[in-house]
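Page 47, continued from p. 46.
Same chain as before, 272 aa.
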Amino acid sequence: MVDVDTNFDRIRRGVWVGPNAAKPYVEWNDLSRVLTDLLQWARSPESREKFDEVMYDSLKLLLKAANSDVKNKVANLSKLTQRDVDTVTVTIIATANIIRLLRNSVINLPRNQFLQVKTGLLDCILDSVYFYHDVGTKCHRVKHKIPYVLTYTPLCIEVIRAALQLTSNLCVGNHAVQGAVWARLYPTMFRTLLNSIDKQVKNYVCSILFHCTAWNGSSALEEMTNEDEGKEMIRLCVGLCQPPNNLEWAQLFVEAHLCRTVHQYVRDMQER
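Result:
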């Protein structure tokens, strides 16, 4: 049996995808098992130290390959064979685990956060949010004609959850990342995700909103408070503070927003 460190090195060297790949296609079933082992392994500080730019480049290639394979398969849902259905399922699960591995690798390690941004992984993560939202919407639209696609909906949500949680982690204290995320998601995708049926998705979105607007001079905060679409997002967040949601990050975001609003009101009154 191949140990976890060896599998880490295999991914790093591009055994599954890239110029050093052993096969012209990715064995997602095989890779998915490897990723499951690496998820737990990456929770230790010693393991996280082993991630470097080469590893993140390899994971980016895997993420792109997974999205491409799923895109090609779901282009025509009505023509999927049972084998295709199984392949797509395994590939989406592997995608979620790639993103979870990326998430685990940055815990308490700013260097790894920097490397993920440097290697362009942030763009791939945000691309995955858009892509799997589209896949989930498409599957929901044809669920009555093609019932088996309902299998994909919760899997797409798993990918979006993991991607948003990682994005939130990368936003903490990094104004450049916050600006890039805001440019990609505001206002349409933020608003769409705040209306998600999944509570965790909504909570992770609220955490991103909190990080992007929590500092003085934030242009994101100015947009939210001055534009109709931003005000609508604030209204949605206020609603998420109430039952049956009671989302923690929604409450933190709204409380911070109210504190800033009151503080600004007091300053304005003092200046009159």
